[in-house]
Specification:
Rossmann fold; three-stranded parallel sheet; 10 helices
Length: 280
C-alpha cells in the first residue's frame, strides 16, 4: 500500500508561510497586491478566480479584480495590462485562461511584465528557468517539487519520467527536475514503448490529459507517482479522477498523489508563493 501525498496539507503549510511573510512585510509598511483579469463569465474560470481571491485574503495580500465583457477587444485587454504593468502598487498580474476564441493568448501573456508574471508563463521566465536564473516558475510544476521535497522524496540521482510535454506542465517540470539533479526522460504521444520507458522511473509524473490512462503496467514497484490530471469521466457524477488509475497503481507505488487533493491544491499555493516572493 502506497503512502498518500496530502496536497491539501502541504498547500496549507505553504500558504501559512506566505501569510507569515506578508505579516512581516506589513510591519514594514509594505503591501502585497495581485491583479486578476477575467474576460467573459465562464463558470470554471469564475471558480478559479474566486479561489485566488480567497487565497489572497487568507495570506493577507490585496487582490484587485477586473472583469471584462466576453466581446471585449484584444486592444482593451492589452491596455488594461499596460496600466497594471505601470502601477507600482501591483506586484503580480494574472490573466485567467482560457480566453475567448478571438483573443491571441500568446500576445496577452507576452504583454505582462515578466517581473509581475506570477503565473510563470512569459517566455522570459521560461528562459530564466531553462538557464537556471531566478524568475517565476509555472505554479503546478513548482508545486510538484514542493510535494516531493516536503514528503521527504530524494530527487537527486533518481530517474524521473515525465509523461506530457506541455508548456505549462511537462516542459518546466522536466527542467525543474534537472535543476534538482534528477535524470529526466520526457515522454509524449510519439514515444515508442511507453510502458518500458515509464517503468524505469523512480519518480513518475503524469500530465497526459487522459483519464486513468496510466495503470499498474506502466509503474515500477516502489515508484513515486505524481498525477497532474483531473477529469470528470462521468458527466453525471461528482467523482473526479486523474491521468493515473489510482486503484490499480496505488498498491505498486511507494507514494502517490490522490485526485482530488494531490497536485491541485498546490497550484494556488505556489501562485501565492510567487506573489509574495516578488517582494524579495
Amino acid at each position: 500500500m502506497a503512502g498518500i501525498i496530502d496536497g491539501k496539507s502541504i498547500s496549507l503549510q505553504i500558504k501559512d508561510e506566505c501569510k507569515d511573510k506578508v505579516s512581516k512585510l506589513k510591519e514594514k509598511g509594505i503591501e502585497v497586491t495581485l491583479a486578476v483579469i477575467q474576460v467573459g463569465e465562464d463558470p470554471a474560470s469564475s471558480v478559479y478566480v474566486n479561489n485566488k481571491k480567497k487565497a489572497c485574503e487568507y495570506i493577507g495580500a490585496n487582490s484587485l479584480s477586473y472583469q471584462l465583457k466576453e466581446d471585449s477587444t484584444q486592444e482593451e485587454l492589452l491596455k488594461l495590462i499596460d496600466d497594471l504593468n505601470n502601477d507600482e502598487k501591483v506586484d503580480g498580474i494574472l490573466v485567467q485562461l482560457p480566453l475567448p476564441m478571438h483573443f491571441d493568448e500568446d500576445e496577452v501573456i507576452r504583454r505582462i511584465n515578466p517581473d509581475k508574471d506570477v503565473d510563470g508563463f512569459h517566455p522570459i521566465n521560461v528562459g530564466r528557468l531553462s538557464i537556471g536564473e531566478k524568475g517565476f516558475v509555472s505554479c503546478t510544476p513548482a508545486g510538484i517539487i514542493e510535494l516531493l521535497k516536503r514528503s521527504n522524496v530524494e530527487i537527486e540521482g533518481k530517474e524521473c519520467v515525465v509523461i506530457g510535454r506541455s508548456n505549462i506542465v511537462g516542459k518546466p517540470m522536466a527542467m525543474l527536475m534537472l535543476r534538482e539533479n534528477a535524470t529526466v526522460t520526457v515522454c509524449h504521444s510519439r514515444t515508442k514503448d511507453l510502458h518500458e520507458v515509464a517503468k524505469r522511473a523512480d519518480i513518475l509524473i503524469v500530465a497526459i490529459g487522459k483519464p486513468r490512462f496510466i495503470d499498474d503496467t506502466y509503474v515500477k514497484d516502489g515508484a513515486v507517482v505524481i498525477d497532474v490530471g483531473i477529469h470528470r469521466p462521468d458527466p453525471d457524477s461528482k467523482k473526479l479522477c486523474g491521468d493515473v488509475d489510482f486503484d490499480k497503481v496505488e498498491p505498486k507505488a511507494s507514494l502517490i498523489t490522490p485526485v482530488p487533493g494531490g497536485v491541485g491544491p498546490m497550484t494556488i499555493a505556489m501562485l501565492m508563493n510567487n506573489l509574495v516572493n516578488s517582494k524579495f
